[in-house]
Amino acid sequence: MKITDQELLIFDGATGTNIQQMQLPAAAWDGKDGCNELLNVTAPDAIQSLHRDFLDAGAQVLETNTFGASRVVLAEYGQEKRVAEINAAAVRNARAAIAGQPGRWVCGSLGPGTKLPSLGHIEPEKLAEAYREQIAALVGAGVDLLLFETAQDIFQIKLGLVACFETLEQLGRDIPVMVSVTVERTGTMLVGTDIAAAAVTVEPFPIFAFGLNCATGPADMTSHIHWLQHNWPRRISMMPNQGLPEIVNGQTAYRLTPADFARQMQPFVAECGVSIVGGCCGTTPAHIRALVESLRGVRPATREVET
Predict the structure, then answer these.
(1) Runs of H (alpha helix) within the chain
(2) Phi/psi at 268 (5° precision)
(3) Which of 13, 109, 220, 243 has the fewest CB atoms within 10 Å, i.e. is most exposed?
(4) pLDDT digit of tens for each residue in the chain (307 aa)?
(5) What residues have CB less than 8 Å from 223, skipping those under 6 apart?
(6) What separation, in Å, do the N-terminal and C-terminal C-alpha atoms of the chain show?
(7) What angle do CA 254, 256, 258 make, to 5 degrees?
(8) Which of 210, 283, 285, 274 is nearest to 241 (CA)?
């Protein structure tokens, strides 16, 4: 089977690591340091400014600042009753940033949370209910698509997808859904699943795209993208970190320059048929700008997928 003529979509870059560089006043955190999602309510101008920086760099899709906006994560800050409020504010901020700009979309970000069901951290139904609540809030606020990202547990993904499509059916909505897994340098996800097993697990669901994000830079994703190139029948997404994270003077640092990031990413589109790209931890608007420039006039390669 040949897969051709997929329009290239370019997502934005990191949220958390860019927020850390903003040096926001203490009042913005309202005593909940580390709860980036609360900033949707307490510092909307800062979040909208970050969104606009990525749009100015050429990003077509903005991810909402909702990576940890489920009740599971918000409960760690005593904010679990504010799921609907925080997610709705996040969508408003993204919408405000793209106002008047055609060809721009808002993607609802769904992170893995901090408790994995395969490891017994959380009861499956509690996790599924948390997904239903957050998805209903994001969809109700008007996202254009949904993304399960940085997925580390295949059981978590299945629970999330079942909850997602049930919720969309109940709401009478049909919007694209994406899944992006995190594969460590060991070659598997955190709980030991490789890319082939993960793909087989999600293929029965009507998802728009499947791919990888986080953990590593582009180079360390090569073997996994090559597998997807020849075996995954729908769109492939790829949103790496700004290289491998390093600890420098006690702080996490990322070394890949915008030019090197773009240079490493371009062949995945031109040669491997990746059709959705963006950045994860460490990637700045400068990285996305360089990526956009490197892909100007480039179309995703035609892929021969084994069936």
Answers:
(1) 16-20, 26-29, 39-42, 44-57, 71-74, 83-98, 124-141, 154-171, 195-202, 222-231, 258-270, 285-294
(2) -65, -30
(3) 220
(4) 666 568 999 999 999 999 999 999 999 999 999 999 999 999 999 999 999 999 999 999 999 999 999 999 999 999 999 999 999 999 999 999 999 899 999 999 999 999 999 999 999 999 999 999 999 999 999 999 999 999 999 999 999 999 999 999 999 999 999 999 999 999 999 999 999 999 999 999 999 999 999 999 999 999 999 999 999 999 999 999 998 777 777 777 788 999 999 999 999 999 999 999 999 999 999 999 999 999 999 999 999 998 7
(5) 187
(6) 7
(7) 120
(8) 283
**53 touches 285 (CB < 8 A):** yes
DSSP-derived secondary structure letter, 33? T
Of 45, 131, 264, the closest CA to residue 255 belongs to 264
Place of tokens 């698509």: 145
Separation of alpha carbons 175 and 136, rounded Å: 12
Distance between CA atoms of 28 and 209, rounded to whole angstroms? 35
Closest CA to 106 of 161, 55, 157: 55
Distance CA 134, CA 140 (A): 10
Q: Which fold has domain 15-235?
A: TIM Barrel (3.20.20)
